[in-house]
């Protein structure tokens, strides 16, 4: 069980319910792969440092989750499949996470 | 003097060693911006006085922040796109 964090840069044109459905889809994937979403931190709309897809603004979401390492490949495959996501970056936060007794 | 020393030779110290809870990660571009020139280039250790260990971490985090459009790669972007796409 490792702790990861994925920072997503979503297109500003996405409506909020589009965004929610995307995030719900990712949470479902995390649960399905035996992981657990710790927090979905919405940074909100921010100005970008340089134009991405000819657009100067983007919506940032940070997903923090724990799970087996195979989960990341699966999650990223889905991120690549879905549209509206400009950039994403996954970072390993911790190697072993204490198994909280749910 | 072949060149004028830009910085007075005051005692330089590593900001991350001195102030331990200063977060060094790509999620805080405001802190990283102190270690980047206005044109977006990473400032050398001998100028900022950062220690080798933290400088390595710093460059990695700056490159991550650049990739996620939190920091600029270079200041001379195509300004036409910038003006046109500001909605």
The global form of chain B is flat
Kindly name the structural category of chain A: alpha+beta
Give the % helix of chain B. Answer: 25-40%
Instruction: Tell me the series of helices and strands of chain B, N- to C-terminal.
Output: HHHHH
How far apart the termini of chain A lie comes to 14 Å
How many helix segments of chain B?
5
Assign the CATH architecture of chain A.
2-Layer Sandwich
Find the count of extended strands of chain A (DSSP E, 2+ residues): 4
Overall mean pLDDT of chain B: 83
Q: Percentage of helical residues of chain A?
A: 25-40%
Q: What is the alpha-carbon Rg of chain B in Å?
A: 16 Å
Whole-number mean pLDDT of chain A: 90
Counted up, domains of chain A total 1
Q: What oligomeric arrangement do these chains adopt?
A: heterodimer
Brief write-up:
The complex is a heterodimer of chains A (102) and B (87). Chain A contains two helices and four strands, in the order βαββαβ.
Q: Which terms would index this structure?
A:
heterodimer, A: 102 residues, alpha+beta, Alpha-Beta Plaits, 4-stranded antiparallel β-sheet, 28% helix, globular
